[in-house]
Amino acid sequence: MPYFGAHMSIAGGYFKALVTAKALEMDAVQLFLSSPQQWCVKPVPTLCTAYRYGKILTKNNNQWAGKALTDEDIRLFQHHWRESNLHLSIAHDSYLINLASHDDTLWRRSVEAFVIEMQRAEAFGLDYLVAHPGTPIDGDEKTGLIRVARALDEIHRRCPRFHVMILLETTAGQGKILGHRFEHLAEIITLAKFPERLGVCLDTCHVFAAGYPLAPEKDYRATMRAFDRIVGLDRLRAFHLNDSKKPLGSRVDRHAHIGQGCLGLEPFRYLVNDRRFRRHPMILETPKEGPDDEAMDAANLKTLRELVRT
Predict the structure, then answer these.
(1) Cis omega before residue 247 (within 30°)?
(2) Is the pLDDT of residue 147 over 80?
(3) Model confidence at 178: pLDDT above 60
(4) Quick check: 58 and 86 in contact, CB under 8 A?
(5) How far, in Å, CA of 100 to CA of 307, rounded?
(6) Interior CA angle at 25 toward 21 and 29, to 5°?
(7) What does the pLDDT average to over 224-242?
(8) 66-179-96 Cα angle (round to 5)
(9) Which CA distances in Å does 26 have to 20, 60, 81, 138, 300?
(10) What is the pLDDT of residue 289?
(11) Angle at CA of residue 86, ends 25 and 256, nearest 5°
C-alpha cells in the first residue's frame, strides 16, 4: 500500500504536524518549514539558524528570513518523529521563492531562501523538499528553465552531502509558471549539474489541469508512459493527491476533495493500486477551510484507503 498522508499545519510548533499526522494514522506527512507570515517580502537583517555538516550554525542573513529555527524545535520534532509510525517526511518550499525569475534581485533572494529551506529540512531529517520550478515573468520559458537549473546547482553546491532530495513539482500551467509540461522537468534535470539529487512530485490536480488525462485506464497508462519516456519513472518519488475543481486542460490550479471534482474517483483507484508506486508517499493537499480540516483529511484518507484492492 502507498504511504498515505496530508499536508499538516505547523501552528504551535513544527512537531504539531507530526502529532496530528499520528492521530490520523498517516504513513507520511508534509509541512511548511516556515509559516507564510514569518517570511519577509523585503530583505531585512536577521539572525537565522542554519544547518550544515551536522552542526547548527547561526549566521547573519540579509535576504528573506523566517523565524529562527532553535535546538528545541529540532529536538521536539525528532522526538515526535521517533514516537510516530510515519515512514516518510516531506516539506514544501515557501511560495515566495521563484528560481525562474528573470529579475536578478528576486532570483538571488529566492536562492538564499531555498538554501535556508534545505538547511531546515536537513536539520529535521526530512526525506524530500518539494518545489515549484518557478515563473519567468517575462515569458522567456527557455531562459527560465536555465535559471532554475543554475539555482539548483548553486543550492546543491552550498548543501553538500545533504540527505534531503529536492522534488520538482508538476504544475497546472496557470499564468507563465513552468512545470506544466513533462518536458520542462526533463530539461531542468538535464541542465542540472547534480541530477542525481533531483526527483519529481506529481500532483494529480496539476497534471490534469495541464492537459494530461488520468482516466479511463488507457489514458492513465498513456500519461504514465509519457512521463516515463520524457522524465523517467525512476525520478517520480512522491505524489500530491488532489481532485480538480476545473476541467481537463483548463490550466487553472483549484484543488478539490477526493472524488468531489472533475477527476472523480477513477484516477485515484488506478494510482493507489499501481504496484510501481506501492511504497511512494501520496500526500493530500485538499482544501483547508476551517475547524473541520482534520475531519476532512480523515475522510479523504478513508476514501483513498477504501480504493486500495486487498
Answers:
(1) no
(2) yes
(3) yes
(4) no
(5) 38
(6) 35
(7) 98
(8) 20
(9) 9, 37, 12, 41, 12
(10) 83
(11) 60
